[in-house]
Amino acid sequence: xxxxQENVAVNGSRRQTPQEIATALRDRIRTGELQPGxxxxxxxxxxxxxxxxxGAVREALRILHAEQLLTNVSKGSPPRVAEVPAPxxxxxxxxxxxxxxxxxxxxxxxxxxxxxCLTAESLMLAVGESVRLIHEGRIKPDRIDVRIxxxxxxxxxxxxxxxxxxxxxxxxxxRWLAQRNxxxxxxxxxxxxxxxxxxxxxxxxxxxxxxxxxxxxxxxNGTEALIAYYMIARREEADESGVTLDMYDTxxxxxLLFSFEKGAGERDTAFVEQSQKWFDALWETITTxxxxx
Length: 293
Fold this sequence. Notes:
Layout: H1 18-30, H2 43-50, H3 54-66, E1 70-71, E2 80-81, E3 92-93, H4 94-105, E4 110-116, H5 121-135, E5 143-151, E6 161-162, H6 171-198, E7 201-209, E8 215-220, E9 224-229, E10 232-238, E11 244-250, E12 256-261, H7 266-284, E13 288-289
Parallel strand pairs: 4-5, 5-7
Antiparallel strand pairs: 1-2, 3-12, 4-8, 6-11, 7-13, 8-9, 9-12, 10-11
Helix pairs in contact: 1-3, 2-3, 4-5, 5-6
């Protein structure tokens, strides 16, 4: 840590940073010294205890609130320790685990979904439950922002690939491209239709990756990250003309989906934050415009 004048207290000792104050309070919560529902001391009392200005205390409280360890941070009274969330089930196949997580994410006023994947197949299928609940009037977000990173059509994909090597026309690549575009169109249409049917502000945008993603990643409202590995296997599938394609491919809908959530511990919180930074960096730098043909 760089010690600046702002970090030096009147008596010459180094003042604690907001991060250090947050760590101290976090330890009290995790060791049980502070129980769920307990009210924290006032900002003035915490400032006196840690020998800092109230601004540093407010920043520490914001950190813990972002980790979902505190509630009522923005209210006039001192915040309380948040209730411990119920433990999640273990990893499930993407087609089993993604839909309920999306449904919960769609229960907030401003829904944000970021996805990086080989195609939009899993997202297209899983979001159907959330759309159904909106049509039933059980949930009604005001705004939905969906950003999706998909491989560029112009790159040489690592997979799927023909077992016997690529040819000039490469039917396996053409099959993937047709799926990428069709699934993206369906997802975009189903969500954008909520504009006219329910007056929801919906934005669905795509950008093209210059590489083949080895994993699929979903980020929900900046508070949860879901990740699954693409498992490569040899399989055969007939194309529309009846020709059998022998290829190395992945069944992304069957990949086990692992969930990480802010507030479930430092490791989970760090994974969510770093995943979001990784996605944002790709979105703003090396990816390019993608138009579904």
